[in-house]
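Follow-up to my post from last week.
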Amino acid sequence: MRVPLSWLREYVDLPATETGRDVQAKLVSAGLEVETVEQLGAGLKGPLVVGKVLTIEELEGFKKPIRFCTVDVGTANGTGEPQEIVCGARNFSVGDKVVVVLPGAVLPGDFAIAARKTYGKTSHGMICSGDELGMGDDGSGGIIVLPDEHEVGTDAVALLELVDEVLDIAVTPDRGYCLSMRGVARETAIAYGLTLRDPALLDVPAPNSFGHPVTVSDPGGCDRFTARTVTGLDPEARSPLWLSRRLQKAGMRPISLAVDITNYVMLELGQPLHAYDRSRLEGAIGVRRALPGERITTLDGTRRILDPQDLVITDDRGPIGIAGVMGGANTEIADLTAHPETGEAQGTTEVVIEAAHFDAISIARTARRHKLASEASKRFERGVDPEAASAAAQRTVDLLVLLAGGSAGAGVTEIVAPSAPHTVAMPADHPDRVAGVAYGRETVVRRLQEIGCDVHGQDELVVAVPSWRPDLGEPNDLAEEVIRLEGYENLPSTLPTPPSGHGLTERQRLHRRVGRALAGAGYVEALNYPFIGDAVLDALGLPADDARRRTVELVNPLSDEEPALRTTLLPGLLAALRRNDGRGSHDLALFETGLVFRPTGEETVPVRLPVDRRPTAGELAGLDAALPGQPRRAAVVLAGAREQAGWWGAGRPADWADAVEAARTVAREAGVELTVHADQHEPWHPGRCAALFAAVDGAPTLVGHAGELHPRAVKALGVPERTCAMEIDLDLLERAGTGALQAPRISAYPVATQDVALVVAQDVPASEVEHALREGAGELLESLRLFDVFTGEQIGSGRKSLAYALRFRAPDRTLTVEEATAAREAAVALAAERTGAILRGA
Amino acid sequence: MSAPNKSYDPVEVEALKPEQIERIRDEALAAFAAAGDLDALAHAKTAHTSGTSPLALANREIGALPPQAKAEAGKRVGQARAAVGRALAVRQTELEAERDARVLVEEAVDVTLPYDRVPAGARHPLTTFMERVADVFVAMGYEVAEGPEAEAEWFNFDALNFVPDHPARQMQDTFFVQGPEGTAGDESGVVLRTHTSPVQARALLDREPPVYVVCPGRVYRTDELDATHTPVFHQIELLAVDEGLTMADLKGTLDHMVQALFGPDMKTRLRPNYFPFTEPSAEMDMVCYVCRGASVGNPDRPCRTCGSEGWIELGGCGMVNPKVLVACGVDPAKYSGFAFGFGIERMLMFRHNVEDMRDMVEGDVRFTRPFGMEI
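User reply:
Got it. Predicted complex:
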């Protein structure tokens, strides 16, 4: 809502010194979001005067038609001589009154005016358009042509009200009444403690039976309908300057007198109005729901198919408007035209004015259904004062009579569904208890009365809320009114004492630790959008039946290319990798932890639960059953060098082992030891893919994959060659965690170290050899470490040598060489049995 | 070791003459002094102190002396040996010190060489900042609560008093999730949560009052990415429900938070506003972190962070709407509560002078790495 300060002053006697910024501050603290205060005409300096065009000489030979004019500006130029001005506009004739800016003046935008040579003539000033004066679009498409009654030489700065301040207010959905000057003026008056001159306080004639006939067949959708008639309108009458200027400042474009007046009254009182050309109405006006398949062409020229839930205005032919949203083209006020034969001015000369009140929800649904948000629907959705309808109709009639020379019809149609004022019962100290401030009953009652409530009762108040505040339905609503008017800024600051807490949960600690551990290992976190499409799943090379292709789809994705939610973290991370690589960072290690979305296939559509009670456990389970699985994952991607080359020596490229180690890093934080198996799983390289297992609830469970990406995926994704990746399920790891660690026993006896080198077939996994060695070595084995893998002629083709360092130690004695050797031999023997290992050199 | 000399010959003990012993001693001292390094000193040591050195030989000769001469000669030789031993030790120490000094100089390196063998990693500042905010409240006794990102509409809207068809439901541009086969459009009853507030409802349903929780998390709205908007962003929500909580408690909690995060002289301001799930509702501002209000009415010192307003808008807050309590099975006659929520991106933008939202979204390591582990 744009509120010109000059207009606001009409209803509230603000001190003359109050600026727009002052009023803004007051209204903001009262709860109106005044976003900006626009300074109209800032920097504007005259002389800017009314002139009369005396002569027009068309200049030839230029790229566009140019006029050399003489204009009578009275004595404003100091000489009284006609002012010579070059002008490019064409929408004026000799004798027209125009706005002339003279040399020495400054127009908005620091545009200084001086006499200057142009098109071979000297132009002593300018004939002005609305844009040049900062007035906004006046619909003329050229310079301003003033009504003839304004005297030559009159100061146009004052005449056009060019200097003003406009408050732009973002009205919240609960304050529909502030979509009007009346509502904003009411808040202003309260904020300043001044009296409001309520523009809705008009004398309105009593309803009678000879107005335009109206039938409301849906009183639930329309609880009030006022119809008034004005005849004898002068189709040539134009909106006076004050009216069009106010509309412009409020952000509306002047169109025609009748339309301008209905817009003006809507801005003033908040009541949307509609004017029907009475000559185009056939029979009684009706209000009903649309019939299936009914159509209407609305004022915006769009042909619409109506829904049976849409409330429509009808005449004998059918719909003539979508109630509370937009009128129909078939009864539109006619533009002024000349009669094709006689040349006589013709246009609308008689109108029926509609001022009605419609159900907010019905209007909201219709406006959304037709994607048609109008000034009217915006107001009805947020609540219009039903008691202001007759006044608004009267105000419209008055202005049509005053400005268009019409006469008010005696008939007054008014259909009102009976209703009682809404009351709210509230303990008088309720606002005190909400705020934590002792306002006292007197203050509470006074503040409620200020906003228009009728208040009765002592300790228990019965508050009748005003008709323009449908948002006031509960005691807390009233408490807010009291507290905001007493000033949020005056609330004290106290700190409540929550019960002693338990800190973070194990799960939350785990998530933090995982992030720290990966960052500590050199990974940089990226938080990627979860939107994916088929393209990336194809690039990853996922087979058609892969579970990661079963996605949760969005109804309204931002991009049709990415309509689904991620089932794996890799697409986002790989895109970030590619982006970094493209920007010149080539040695990359990225990680992300976050949710992926995995349809259960069992999702149900939940029933709409009530909100007037706690849902039952079964109802809540029904809500959760509608949701897809959303496990939390951790993932890394790597490319380029894992260790950089430098003065210390050579670097080392990132490889599959880094990806597997990242998985171990994550698992270690969960207190989980991973078991690794070779696997073939897209998008990984079939020979360099590790399946990661952990014991979840006692059963070995696949928790993730790590390794180097498949060269095809690398190419399709456009990521650097040999890119590696890991993804692991944190929820499963959390379940696999073993709880509190049991402290190891530390033996102070000396260690006995024995090395073995075992030769096995190339395809024997090292993990199996290690497993056998550990089991065979028995309890005396303190630790075991693979320190070398060797292949070569000495070993024989198809075989590899694995060199292990075994450390033996007993808790209670120094081991003898014989004991350590026996344990080593047992280890080697079991490895030989299980894996065919042969002791190297044996 | 030689046997005692029984048959001594006075002619053969010439070496034990006093001047002879002094000469031997002085030769040793001179040799030590002349030794330029530890190797030379080792040679000199062998030459002058070993079993075959003149002094050792002289010592051996003492036994051959007549008994009356033994005492004096023994004393003289002993003094000479002591002097030689002392000189050797002193020279040894001197030369070792010289050697050490030289070696350490030789071993010196250029400690200004850069070392970036494995460049440091980092956590995203959005993550660490959310944790930091949460920790302020955890320290006060709050719990951290979480919820799903694909959320039931009932939790995201209905339970929070977003009435169907109310304009407030359209204030937030919602991503709707496609329902199971056979359902059309947005009928699935599932959305990507538009705020962290549904966690409020879940927390109230999961716990008995008093409830004090913070809910950090990721939220979604259908905004295109630009310098100031992103469709995927982060919020942190706070909810306190207890007996007798007031707006003054809300204000105090907000003040505490901004002081903990931005410094002890920070304060907040509440402005009336509207949110369906709170009543009364407020917009909360904090004193501009950058100019601390100094830019207001001071055209010479404009502040880009607050637009010279002196205040920065943080987010929405208010007293939990009793309708929300009812929907979550909490008796509004007994309990009241307050809640607030704000965008993490926005706070990060002005706390760390981030100029473009895209920097927080794109995962460029050059942006994230400097933020390290904590914020």
